UniProtKB/TrEMBL annotation:
InterPro entries: Glyco_trans_1. This is Glycosyltransferase family 4 protein. Residues 187-350 form the Glycosyl transferase family domain. Gene3D superfamilies: Glycogen Phosphorylase B (3.40.50.2000). It comes from the Bacteria.
């Protein structure tokens, strides 16, 4: 079996990059597949997560300007080169299956390149807000664009979603749900009963809601000034600056640390007591699985379709009403003041992620690759 994965880059820390690295390493080592990753803007950077040397990397060096819309003229003029370069590369590789990970121009033309090759589109984010906007915006242009989008999706042999909740947002009948995978850490787990650190991690962008987390922490710090919040991740400079200004305005500079990105997030989690998340939207946040594998209890906003599919409220964490900052702060305070509950939730979470066992999840992918490469069409809905 020869696979091609297509994405924009694999040098920036993120959920897609982490999941992709885990998958390709498994496929080349456990299933002996030939696996290629084709990027459009790797820019000579090394992958941010370890990728086995048996995985073959290709970069087309299209280098779209990501500060502008894909439909900006400066990006549109690069589309022909992108199309022709990708088509030549696929012809040379001759894969059985192509998997599209990101959402760029290649999403639109891949279904029509080499029809004898099976194509899969992975979706890594929730369509909740997109669906809401689609219902609200009835303009002719928007309806036309949405119909094109639906048509393109129907031309993939399979669309892979992360949760069953997401299926209602799609018009196609070529849907399959395969969650992300993770294995339990069999060695150390976090010393949640003794640590006085709370941790959060992710791309530093408005969608992650870190300003809400900072406002909530200002309330926590009033009751527990000896506790510290560490936030890990890279991101948008202007947004980071606004977070720094917010921290200063709340006079909690010594209570919150913006730590930047790290390659050792597991070690940081092991040194923490609670994991927290205040995202506006998530689909299947890998970082929650990582926190649970390290034995951390979770406090998270109940954002659409994400956290509730990973952990259970009052069993291995606390789900808080979306955007309720005071309730979020109280949930953290509740766990700070109940170390036995932190330990209980952490152990439950560590055990519950067995349902996302790597061998189990990768076997789903293996079966899908066999089906689509044999052009055994199914109604996956």
């Amino acid at each position: 079996m020869t696979l091609v994965y297509i994405t924009d880059q694999i040098y920036l820390h993120g959920g897609i990059e982490r999941v992709l690295a885990n998958k390709v390493n498994y496929f080349v080592n456990e299933l002996n597949y030939e696996v290629h990753i084709i990027t459009t803007e790797q820019k000579n950077n090394i992958p941010c997560y370890e990728i086995d040397s048996k995985v073959i990397l290709h970069d087309l060096a299209i280098n779209y300007n990501r500060n502008k819309s894909y439909f900006n003229p400066l990006n549109l003029i690069k589309v022909p080169k992108h199309y022709l370069s990708l088509k030549r590369k696929i012809k040379a590789i001759k894969p059985n299956v192509i998997v599209v990970c990101n959402f760029a121009f290649d999403f639109y033309f891949i279904p029509f390149v080499y029809p004898e090759i099976a194509k899969i589109k992975e979706f890594h984010s929730s369509r909740h807000f997109f669906h809401q906007k689609r219902l609200e915006n009835k303009s002719l242009f928007t309806n036309f664009f949405n119909k094109i989008n639906d048509y393109i999706e129907s031309k993939y042999h399979c669309l892979v979603l992360l949760t069953t909740d997401e299926k209602k947002y799609y018009k196609s009948n070529n849907l399959l749900v395969i969650p992300n995978s993770i294995d339990k850490h069999l060695g150390k787990i976090a010393n949640t009963g003794n640590s006085k650190k709370v941790i959060s991690a992710g791309r530093i962008a408005p969608v992650k809601g870190f300003e809400k987390l900072i406002n909530a922490w200002s309330l926590v710090a009033q009751k527990h000034p000896d506790w510290v919040l560490d936030i890990y991740g890279f991101g948008e400079k202007e947004y980071i600056k606004s977070l720094e200004n917010l921290i200063s305005s709340l006079n909690i500079n010594d209570k919150i640390v913006l730590c930047g990105s790290t390659n050792n997030i597991n070690e940081k989690m092991l040194d923490s007591a609670i994991y927290v998340m205040t995202s506006e939207t998530e689909c299947f946040p890998m970082v929650l699985l990582e926190a649970m594998s390290n034995g951390l209890p979770i406090v998270s906003f109940d954002c659409p379709n994400g956290p509730r599919n990973i952990f259970t409220n009052n069993v291995d964490g606390i789900l808080v009403e979306q955007n309720n900052i005071k309730a979020f702060a109280n949930a953290i305070i509740n766990l700070i003041e109940a170390p036995e509950k932190r330990i209980f939730f952490g152990k439950n979470g560590h055990n519950s992620i067995e349902k996302f066992n790597t061998n189990k999840i990768m076997n789903c992918w293996r079966n899908l690759f066999i089906d689509v490469s044999s052009f055994k069409f199914k109604d996956y809905s």
